[in-house]
């Protein structure tokens, strides 16, 4: 399965849902200035980057009953014209919709590198039907390098992923991070046999074969808002900022883990916007403590100025990445399922194999099978697939 690299902020989608929920769940509905209807609000996710600009568009879906919010969702927008323009209104790049299996998806991608000119500001320009949306013009910031991506083993209970950075020119004081992670999942036991219930025969599995379910891979992207700033410190350095954590019962702990972190230098306005949304997500009851202007980003509907829009666009040059591998093979993973072994006679397999969802560990000449629950032998039960990343450093299949 093809995986798409996107810089879309999934937490904005969560914010939109919380925004609707809070508006709909009060005895006297709270209506911020200019927001009388929660349906059809455009949500813009993404940023203008020199490499990898991806914009995702969606709209909030109407709630049919203020006391019984039965359906919260974002409706995809895949019929837009998305451009990057400069402050002279010149078209710099066009973000084209992605096509998957002949169907357009609401991800608009700039396939080529954007060359930013010094002293020039840029904006996102969106046309949807007869409506025109545009972000404020923003000046691209040069992102400092990541000093280090490190990790910490918390006594075998969990793993912390941390980032350290600084700007030697002291020009960037606000940062945002996104990450993509991949991990290899290994089943607790290898099953050399699969029982075919249609033919009542045993099929041998090879550990090196491409169809084994001992090795799998899984992937994910950051889903929370990860920001940091140095203005409150005497040293303009961010040291060991935790951006991710997972427990030893997580499948990421299985064998080999990899994370690539991308760092964006952002301005104070972008930082404040994300900080406000972070507060709403973490303490959604605090929505009313914020002023309506704080809920707005820097995107406006030019053709209908009173229409609210959710989203903030910034521009960043040289968004730098750093990849880290962690070998989990020498750590003790704590399984949260029971792998007790039991013996069954192979004549009982046509019923027991599916009824008890068994994985076969071994088979002897007496017709006895040593079995465990299949969750212990099949890595696909843990969200894994056979889609091995191209960059993976071992030869497992």
What does this structure look like?
By secondary structure, this protein is mainly β. It has a domain at about 10-140 and about 270-320. The protein contains three helices and 26 strands. The strands form six sheets. Strands 1, 3, 4, 5, 6, 7, 8, 9, 20 and 21 form a ten-stranded mixed sheet that branches. Strands 13, 16, 17, 19 and 23 form a five-stranded antiparallel sheet that branches. Strands 2-22-10 form a three-stranded parallel sheet, with no helix packed on it. β25 (about 360-365) and β26 (about 370-375) form a beta hairpin. The chain is elongated. Mean pLDDT is about 85; it is low at about 1-35, about 65-70 and about 285-295.
In short:
The protein has 397 residues and is mainly β. The protein is built from 3 helices and 26 strands. It has a domain at 10-141 and 268-319.
List the helices and strands and how they pair.
Blueprint: H1 10-24, E1 42-46, E2 48-49, E3 54-60, E4 74-76, E5 80-86, E6 91-100, E7 103-109, E8 122-128, E9 131-135, E10 141-142, E11 146-153, E12 158-166, E13 174-186, E14 193-196, E15 201-204, E16 215-221, E17 227-229, E18 237-247, E19 256-266, H2 268-282, E20 299-301, E21 309-310, E22 315-317, E23 320-327, E24 342-345, H3 349-355, E25 358-363, E26 368-373
Parallel strand pairs: 1-21, 2-22, 10-22
Antiparallel strand pairs: 1-3, 3-4, 3-7, 5-6, 5-8, 6-7, 8-9, 9-20, 11-12, 12-18, 13-16, 13-17, 13-19, 14-15, 19-23, 24-26, 25-26
Helix pairs in contact: 1-2
